């Protein structure tokens, strides 16, 4: 050990890998090192998977524990006594069903509206020639750059002025068009060959007819993307609902559960109740995610596969 | 970047027989149709994006108290009074604003590098060619990003409660975890007091900026804010990982191979080949991260309402609180505008910084080959350079091209 320091200093990094691999045959070394590297990569990745998914497992499991057990053994993945008390309370003695209904209503309306309005606008910006198109497009880019949080108070002011504060209209209408969705549709329509439309036009179809029965059906992949993004976006929206309404009858899931987190349903930590609510509000998005995961991830990345 | 240019080029490859006369005849009809098509969008975006900004601009220079219409004659113009109170009033308003800026600045300083590094790290690992189950890993890492911020916050409130999962876990390692969400001590102050420095020098405690002393500016994020930092990294790294993976897949294998032939080690290849070619993606990730980080609202609203001791107060939440809870609408609107200015300034600054570097000659050498290789690798060509968002959906539609 006394002679070691000089060697250890230089050999430390290589030593770990080479010491055991120094063995018999030379050419073997690189492939063995590669396989060892792969094992390390898998180990790291699996570690991260646990880190990323364990919290969600704990969330679901804890919602079936009793209040005391949730506090006493927060890490365990098997409840000592299974109970659905949290869910009974949520469904029978809280506003949870109302929040859920409101979220569904708002999300469906917003999604339908966005699909229609965004694709119309996207088509016009991609294909139709009209005076002011450049200006409209520039304004759209500018508007997209405004951070959403900055608009919270301004939005309330306008809703109030229009007299639709604290109504379904106030919850839904401001979300009906989004610049990002318009961009997706515009880019997609630009990728469709023009010849198809020109053929339709020669046959005498009007602009709307061409759009509705020729171009739109071809845009199904982009429309699905748009539906996913709109659904996810409006289901998870919180800040707009906070400033657009105040009455409890108009609370959506995000707002309602945020209220729960702040102690809305009485004393104590009530972790099973809160985690159950959080798990339930994740379910629709999770289903959507697992059904369309490939498309969702490609939407984010634009990945092109070989 | 490309969207603006593609808009100006109306027809990339028109059919050769499309005569001029027909086109101009159609023009008038198209003009009317065009405006009809965009009217719904113009009305909604105008009404709920453009008009609000104008209205808020007025409120920020008025003394509107939240009653009646801000446009009524009883509301008075007060000039820049609301702004003056924020930055130079010396009262509670200034102090709160300074505190909120400090909290958010630390949040940005930690979240942006952490999420970018973690995302890039995961992307590089997941993108390895020999890896099995890539899709499963991607899914696992991306899942937190699709769930709502409220649900995640509720989960973190549980995980980081005083006797929660995290404290139980660090307990195994013999560490006494803090009561995370209730702990207002700044981590830099904590680290300093660990080495015996309990109060700052007079130069720092005696002077200040925006109502709080320099010593307080340097406190670091509170323990409670640190949890929000971890949460942000947890939820955003998946999204940015996907962006990096897309960037990595654009890099042609040839470049990598050539570097390997030249005897570059894995680390050298990453640092000298991969990283420079990822610059556009890196730029996107940093910009999105920065813009997002200055907008923390949902988590604060759900978890802490600005506490403990205002250490998780952010400008976005302060703006909401000032308006909706204290009915001080002028101040709330003014905070929103200052926040807007900060975000724009940061985005512009970052753009400038990252621009500068691209002129380093040695790195440029790789870029043209890389881009050429990447575009040819995308095959089938034809599709205009659409934004990343639809690159995946492009391909399917390029086939009928040969009809003419």
Structure, explained:
The complex is a heterodimer of chains A (306) and B (404). Chain A is mostly helical and 306 residues long. Chain A has helices at 4-21, 28-62, 67-72, 85-92, 96-127, 133-144, 152-162, 168-172, 179-191, 194-202, 207-218, 220-236, 239-244, 253-261, 271-291, 293-301. Chain A has a domain at 94-265: MetI-like fold (Orthogonal Bundle), CATH 1.10.3720. Chain A is built from 16 helices and no strands. In chain A, helix 2 packs across helix 15 (271-291) and helix 9 (179-191) packs antiparallel against helix 12 (220-236). Chain A starts with a helix and ends in a 5-residue tail after the last helix. Chain B is mainly α and 404 residues long. Chain B has a domain at 82-186 and 221-377: MetI-like (MetI-like fold, Orthogonal Bundle), CATH 1.10.3720. In chain B, a hairpin with a 2-residue loop joins strand 1 (208-209) and strand 2. In chain B, strands 1-2 form a two-stranded antiparallel ribbon. At the A-B interface, helix 2, helix 3, helix 5, helix 6 and helix 7 of A face helix 1, helix 2, helix 4, helix 5 and helix 6 of B.
Explain briefly what this protein structure is.
The complex is a heterodimer of chains A (306) and B (404). Chain A is mainly α.
What structural keywords apply?
heterodimer; A: 306 residues; mainly alpha; MetI-like fold; 16 helices; disordered N terminus; disordered C terminus; B: 404 residues; two-stranded antiparallel sheet; 2 strands; 68% helix; 1% strand
